[in-house]
Design goal:
The protein has helices at 2-66, 70-84, 95-111, 118-136, 146-162, 168-193, 196-218, 224-241, 262-295. With 308 residues, the chain is mostly helical. The chain has two domains: 43-138, Up-down Bundle (Four Helix Bundle (Hemerythrin (Met), subunit A)), CATH 1.20.120; 141-297 and 304-308, no CATH class. It starts with a helix and ends in a 13-residue tail after the last helix. This is Sporulation protein.
Length: 308
């Protein structure tokens, strides 16, 4: 009986060990799966938080630039440069866009300590602000709202050229300069979401428009060439703002993404308006200075032909 009892005890012990080992073997893959699935969600949350931080710092950088606070702006640039280098952050956007982003950061850092470069690094902070917003809110980025701004610029170019004033060519070139500046502001953001060829097409049309104005002014081209160039520029700009995922439909600039209130969207539109007004005022002041300087030509007349 003792032998039989011992055998039964050994069998029961073995059965318990098998069950225990089986449970441990089954629980191991489960724990491994949990360990593998958990970082995916955590990684995505970290990336979103980093993009939000990048956008927030870029907003603060733009505000510091508005206040000409070079010390705070330089500190924010260093933070932005470090955060933008993270691989998780660069999963949003495009390699070409991030390359342009890095160049803007370097240009701003180089210009900021120097005197007389306020306009340059202010423009770079605007580029970084719009680009950071594009990767953080790809569904409805602020840069799309520049579509209306560029249309107003094109209309201004057309109006100045169609005027019969003696200096209409100079006025048209000044208006083209405003258009180019606005395009430069959204360039990095557009590269984050569009093919580089689209914005290059707009830049090429601007160069052609400038050549058309100069050619028409000197008599090498007919005045109608400027109108044709303007239409070509408008077509290229429309293609830039068109959403590649919505064939045949224009990009919706006023779309409200999830988690964004109407008030926040309106605040974004106000920021675009402020950026446009600032650039326009600077251009008007520059043009007014040129007119004042040109008025002095009446004292010492000169021939305009020698400049052609």
């Amino acid at each position: 009986m003792k032998a039989l009892s011992s055998i039964i005890a050994l069998v029961c012990a073995g059965f318990v060990l098998v069950l225990a080992s089986g449970c441990s073997l089954n629980s191991k893959p489960f724990s491994v799966l949990n360990a593998q699935s958990e970082p995916v969600g955590v990684g995505a949350a970290k990336a979103d938080a980093s993009l939000e931080q990048l956008s927030s710092w870029s907003d603060a950088l733009y505000s510091a630039a508005n206040q000409s606070n070079r010390q705070e702006a330089y500190l924010l640039l260093q933070r932005i440069e470090g955060l933008a280098a993270l691989p998780d952050v660069r999963k949003s956007g495009t390699p070409v866009g991030w390359q342009a982003f890095d160049l803007s950061v370097k240009a701003a850092k180089k210009a900021m300590p120097q005197r007389g470069t306020t306009t340059l690094w202010y423009t770079e902070t605007a580029r970084l602000k719009l680009a950071s917003d594009a990767v953080f809110r790809p569904e409805a980025p602020l840069w799309l709202q520049y579509e209306g701004v560029l249309k107003d610029d094109a209309q201004r170019i057309r109006a100045t050229w169609q005027s019969q004033s003696e200096d209409r060519a100079m006025a048209a070139e000044a208006s083209i300069g405003i258009y180019s500046e606005h395009l430069a502001r959204l360039e990095v953001a557009a590269l984050m979401q569009r093919d580089a060829g689209r914005i290059e097409a707009v830049q090429e049309r601007i160069a052609y428009l400038q050549a058309a104005v100069q050619g028409a002014e000197t008599g090498q081209l007919r005045p109608e060439a400027v109108t044709v160039a303007l239409e070509s520029l408008a077509a290229a700009a429309n293609d830039l703002f068109r959403d590649p995922d919505q064939v045949g439909e224009a990009a919706v600039a006023e779309a409200i993404p999830p988690g964004v209130t109407v008030g926040q969207q309106r605040e974004g539109a106000m920021l675009i308006g402020e950026m446009f007004i600032a650039a326009f005022v600077m251009a008007v002041l520059g043009f007014a200075g040129w007119r004042k300087y040109r008025g002095q030509d009446k004292v010492v007349p000169f021939s305009r032909n020698k400049f052609h």
